[in-house]
Structure to design on (225 residues):
């Protein structure tokens, strides 16, 4: 990793990298709201650099993290930082609000120590995934059988599920499912899931605990509908 801190640098970079992969295009604007320890030590521990670099696509071992602000200018990423009390959350927590070609994203994640992270909310919906595995995010209508259908598609593709977390805003409303699997799904499986009538948004996120050179090739992300 590029230091100085596994919590404040590597962890921050991984959270922002996951946010980038929740967007279908490179982000153009971003706002980082820092909470607790992140807010107090952001500059000294390289948190601001790491967040910007992660949103540009960096893994924690990318030497470009040190020049992240110049990198962002080069690729046309506008960004700002703010601090706020985000409530009863881990002290190393950031809320990322990003835009890319008309698509908006909000993601709240925490750096737990040793470079480990956990994402707790995406677009206002509760979730729970770590970035330690390939992760499928599925926004869908709350109805019977959706979790079983998604799990069945993963199994049919030879995927092994490490965890599933699902939460809904209300009965019959929107629900967000996160599925952590041992390897990326094939493109045909992503295409099938994204075309289900009750699925409105699907993303395939990489395993961010390893560098890109250590990972098998992933299928293209599922498209928004």
């Amino acid at each position: 990793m590029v230091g100085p801190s596994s919590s404040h640098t590597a962890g921050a970079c991984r959270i922002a990298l996951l946010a980038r992969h929740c967007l279908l295009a490179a982000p153009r604007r971003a706002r980082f709201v820092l909470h607790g320890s992140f807010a107090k030590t952001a500059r000294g521990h390289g948190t601001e650099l790491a967040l910007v670099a992660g949103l540009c696509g960096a893994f924690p071992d990318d030497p470009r993290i040190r020049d992240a602000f110049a990198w962002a200018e080069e690729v046309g990423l506008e960004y700002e930082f703010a601090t706020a009390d985000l409530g009863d959350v881990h002290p190393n927590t950031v809320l990322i609000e990003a835009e890319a070609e008309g698509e908006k994203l909000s993601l709240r994640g925490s750096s737990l120590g040793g470079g480990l992270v956990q994402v707790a909310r995406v677009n206002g919906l509760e979730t729970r995934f770590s970035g330690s595995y390939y992760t499928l995010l599925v926004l869908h209508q709350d109805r019977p059988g959706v979790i079983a259908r998604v799990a069945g598609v993963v199994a049919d593709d030879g995927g092994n599920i490490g965890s599933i977390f699902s939460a809904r805003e209300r009965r019959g409303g929107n629900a967000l499912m996160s599925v952590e699997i041992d390897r990326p799904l094939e493109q045909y499986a992503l295409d099938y899931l994204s075309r289900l009538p009750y699925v409105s948004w699907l993303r395939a996120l990489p395993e961010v605990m390893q560098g890109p050179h250590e990972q098998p090739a992933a299928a293209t992300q599922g498209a928004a509908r």
Notes: The first strand starts at residue 29 and ends at 35. The beta strands are 29-35, 78-83, 93-100, 103-113, 116-122, 125-129, 134-141, 161-168, 174-181, 199-205. The mean pLDDT is 88. The longest helix spans residues 6-21.
